[in-house]
Prior knowledge:
Blueprint: H1 3-11, H2 24-29, E1 40-44, H3 51-57, E2 61-66, H4 69-79, E3 84-87, E4 92-96, E5 99-103, H5 111-114, E6 119-123, H6 131-145, E7 150-156, H7 171-178, E8 182-191, E9 203-211
Parallel strand pairs: 1-2, 1-6, 2-5, 6-7
Antiparallel strand pairs: 3-4, 4-5, 7-9, 8-9
The structure holds S-adenosylmethionine (SAM).
Amino acid sequence: xxxxxxxxxxxxxxxxxxxxxxxxxxxxxxxxxxxxxxxxxxxxxxxxxxxxxxxxxxxxxxxxxxxxxxxxxxxxxxxxxxxxxxxxxxxxxxxxxxxxxxxxxxxxxxxxxxxxxxxxxxxxxxxxxxxxxxxxxxxxxxxxxxxxxxxxxxxxxxxxxxxxxxxxxxxxxxxxxxxxxxxxxxxxxxxxxxxxxxxxxxxxxxxxxxxxx
Length: 213
Ligand SMILES: C[S@@+](CC[C@H](N)C(=O)[O-])C[C@H]1O[C@@H](n2cnc3c(N)ncnc32)[C@H](O)[C@@H]1O
C-alpha cells in the first residue's frame, strides 16, 4: 500500500472504511482513558472521520495526519470550518480552532510539528498498514507522543481469507507491538455481524493502552 494506493481510493471515492456515524467503540470507551477536556488527541491516518467531530464536541483538541488532501478538505467541509491552510516543511497544514491536520505521511510528522500530545485515537489506522509497516508505525507513534495513552480499534480474522486492508491484527500482535510500553486492556471483543468485507467471521477488538507505570 503505497501513497498512490490511498490517493487513488480517495480520487475514486472508494472509501468503504468511512463511517457515517460515530464509532461506538470510541463513544463507549474513550472516556476510559481518563483524559480531561482540552487534552490534545492525535488521530493518525484520520481520513475524514466523523469521530473527529465527536472528539471536538467532547471538548478535546484534535491533531490529525492524513496523506490525502482531498480527504482533509472534505473533513473541514463536513465540520463547516474554514481552515487556515499553511505550507510547512511537511506539506500543507489545515488549522481551525481546536483542530490541526497535517497533510502528508505520518512517518514525517515529528513532535516538533504536533506539540504535546495527551492521547491517541487509532481507528482504521494500524489495521490499514501491512505487517512490517505496523511495527515501524507503532514505534513511531510511541516516540512521537511519548507513549501517550491510546484507544485502539483492531480487527481479528483469518488473514488467509482476504488481503488487507483492513488487515487482521490479532491480540498477540497488539501485545507484542505495545506491551513493553503500555498496560493493555481489551475492553471489547465482539463478533462483527455480517462479517468483514468478504470474510464471514471476524471480530472487532477495542483496546485501552495506558501507561505501564
Ligand atoms: C482505512 S482509512 C481510515 C481513515 C480513518 N481513520 C477512518 O476511520 O475513517 C486509512 C487512511 O489513512 C491514510 N493513510 C494511509 N497511509 C498513510 C500514511 N503513511 N500517512 C498518513 N495517512 C495515511 C489514507 O489516505 C486513508 O485515508
